[in-house]
Amino acid sequence: MVNNLQQEVSRAVEHFYQSVLSESHSNDDELSVVLPVIITCYNMILTDRVDDFYRLQRANEDEVEATLLDELQQLSNQHPGYEEWVSIVREDIKRFSSSKYPNACYLIYVTVNTLSSLSFDEWCLNKEHCGGLFFDHLLVTIFNNVGVSSAEFYNSPPIAKLVALLADSDRGMSLYDPTCGVGSFLLSSAKGDCELYGQELNRKAWSIAKMNLFMHNHFDNKVFLGDTLLAPQTSVAKFDRVVACPPFSASVSDKLRFSYDNQRFPFGVPEKKADYAFIQHILSSLKACARGVVVVSPGILFRSGSDKKIRTELIKSNVIKAVISLPSGLIYGSNISSAILILETGREKSDRQIQFINASEEYTVKSRQHKLSEDNISQIISWFQNTQPEKGKVVFKSIEEVEKADFDLTVSRYTFESEELEYRPIADIRSEQLALTSELESLKIKMEKMLNEVSDEPS
Question: Tell me, what's the pLDDT at 5?
């Protein structure tokens, strides 16, 4: 049943994409019109205003933009958390329609009519979570086919699923993503009535995140627009789970470098790269007994300088539960490798070890790209949940052992299995070398003799 619905929605999204976006420029500006129209139509259906949905569909091109703007204002009135989003979207649509793209009315018109032809209203009324499923498939299609700048803020569904399973959240928990992109990690990790919080610096990615959460019926989300490191909109020690994929190796700003926010950066601000600023922010956001799952650049596991100083303090504080190395090419739009850092507060004093998991070969090749299959994800989760080591894949090292390794967290350093080399005296090796050399010379003489005999035979 679920597979049939997936296929049905997938076909519908393909038809929608071909009808609305494939022949246009398909850039960020057009998406800033098309996606809010979908949100508006979904809201009309959810609030039992199907007649208004059809009224919008019947409106001519002169009326359709004004009608949409009115509907967006109603959405804002119904959901106070969307006031800022509606204000920005309304300005985007007005700017779009008055700029070098004078086809905003047409885009609104064709979007509504295409949704109508797909029986979008019947789906959303009769099939649970169909609106969210439609939006999921649409985002995948857009980011796989359209060169939009927000694509770098999109995490593929397999990565999001892996992070969610590692986070292991439960109903009623508070979830937070300080660099939420388009909201993939929050949605994958949410269960039941979880409280969802997030922040995103990129305005277009933030806008898509608000829409993504809306389409999945998380209307009361608190996802903010702004710089998480310089102006966080959340409090410390607030969340049960934090899931994140901060930008790899972003530069530290001068303002942050001279920050004295000891609550969020107890081990200091890194000198050049902001990775450990994000990691400390995530750690400080966790409650007393909570978990953070962070996708990171492998460089943070071994870099020297201020990174090493902060890493050392994190290790000594016993808040690093596990480090998982991942295959290259999993992060959207990049071929670089990555790793997952699992942080836990409130660990038992007797539990002073770090689990290292080598999942660098755990991938499936599809269209010449590395992907995580269901089997790959299940294997990684199985390793994480297992308390026993597995040769070449899973090891447990005490903090003291990691200290002896100069506080290096590189997974392969601990999981690599070298074969024991046979000890042999040098005199024996030299004797064997002389014997082999002598045998080689003898073979050369025999070969030369055979070749001469062949050449002397009459033809």
Answer: 84
Distances (CA, A) of 96 to 13, 60, 107, 111, 328: 24, 18, 11, 16, 38
Question: CB neighbours of 51 closer than 8 A, spacing ≥ 6?
Answer: none
Task: Please give the Cα distance from 294 to 281 (Å, whole number).
Answer: 11
Kindly state whether residues 133 and 180 are assigned to the same domain.
no
- Contact 301/338 with Cβ under 8 angstroms? no
Q: Which two tokens stand for residue 315?
A: 């290790």
Residues in the chain, total: 459
Edge-first strand order for the sheet with 353-358 is 222-225, 195-200, 174-177, 239-244, 286-296, 338-344, 320-326, 353-358, 394-398
C-alpha triplet 298, 301, 302: angle, nearest 5°:
110
**Segment 52-74, tens digit of pLDDT:** 888 888 887 778 888 899 999 99
CA distances for 395 relative to 328, 329, 345, 363, 411, angstroms: 21, 25, 21, 20, 9
Is 194 found in the same domain as 127?
A: no
Record the pTM: 0.87
CA distance 21 to 9: 17
- pLDDT the model gives residue 421: 43
CATH number at residue 157: 3.40.50.150
Number of structural domains (the chain) is 2
Instruction: Express each pLDDT in 109-132 by its tens digit.
Output: 889 999 999 989 888 888 878 999
Note whether 220 and 355 are same-domain residues: yes
pLDDT attached to residue 226: 96
Question: 138 and 267, same structural domain?
Answer: no
In whole angstroms, give the CA distance from residue 33 to residue 424: 74
Instruction: Give pLDDT tens digits for 148-172.
Output: 555 567 888 899 999 999 999 999 9
Expressed in angstroms, the distance from the first to the final Cα of the chain is 81
Task: Sort strands 174-177 and 338-344 into parallel, antiparallel or unpaired.
Answer: unpaired
| Structural domain boundaries enclosing 209 | 153-415
Question: Considering the domain boundaries, does residue 458 fall inside one?
Answer: no
Helix (H, G, I), strand (E, B) or coil at 352: coil
Quote the tokens at residue 162.
Answer: 């892996």
Helix (H, G, I), strand (E, B) or coil at 197: strand
